[in-house]
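User: I've been trying to design a sequence by hand for this structure and keep getting stuck. Would you show me what you'd pick, starting by listing the structure so we're on the same page?

Assistant: Good idea, let's start from the same input. This is the structure you sent:
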């Protein structure tokens, strides 16, 4: 299985081109700076991962993605190679984007670029009838048989 999920910040605005021909298609390229979980010598480190999106996903990236915003991307890794002008073979690795979305609200990315933001939506506050004094939800009596665990 070839599946990749990344969360990071755009290092620059996406570069968008359109294919030639009658049915031209948008192709967007951008680089994500993805923080590494472990740091060396107390320094934050990141991997810079090339991503490419096609069609509507590329048009979306062109319209809404800007340098510094945090996004989540899922897709697949694709490798390739070509020979450059000097006759040297160059190997490439890209993430072909299948899904992409914002990982923070616009106000957070505008005012706090560089600070961490949670991807999770806050849980709704429990109603007084649902929550006990310790903050846990009360389970009604008599439904033990319906629970998937015991």
């Amino acid at each position: 299985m070839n599946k990749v999920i990344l969360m990071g910040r755009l290092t620059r605005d996406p570069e968008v081109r359109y294919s030639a021909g009658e049915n031209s298609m948008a192709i967007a390229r951008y680089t994500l700076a993805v923080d590494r979980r472990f740091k060396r010598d107390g320094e934050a480190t990141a991997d810079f991962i090339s991503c490419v999106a096609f069609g509507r996903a590329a048009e979306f990236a062109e319209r809404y993605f800007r340098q510094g915003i945090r996004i989540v991307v899922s897709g697949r890794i694709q490798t390739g190679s070509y020979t450059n002008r000097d006759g040297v073979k160059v190997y490439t690795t890209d993430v072909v984007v299948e899904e992409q979305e914002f990982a923070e609200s616009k106000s957070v990315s505008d005012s706090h670029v560089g600070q961490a933001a949670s991807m999770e939506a806050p849980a709704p506050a429990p109603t007084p009838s649902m929550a006990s004094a310790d903050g846990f939800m009360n389970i009604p009596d008599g439904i033990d048989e319906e629970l998937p665990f015991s």
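That's my pick for every position. To get oriented when you compare it with your attempt: DSSP finds two helices and six strands in the chain. The longest strand covers residues 70-83.
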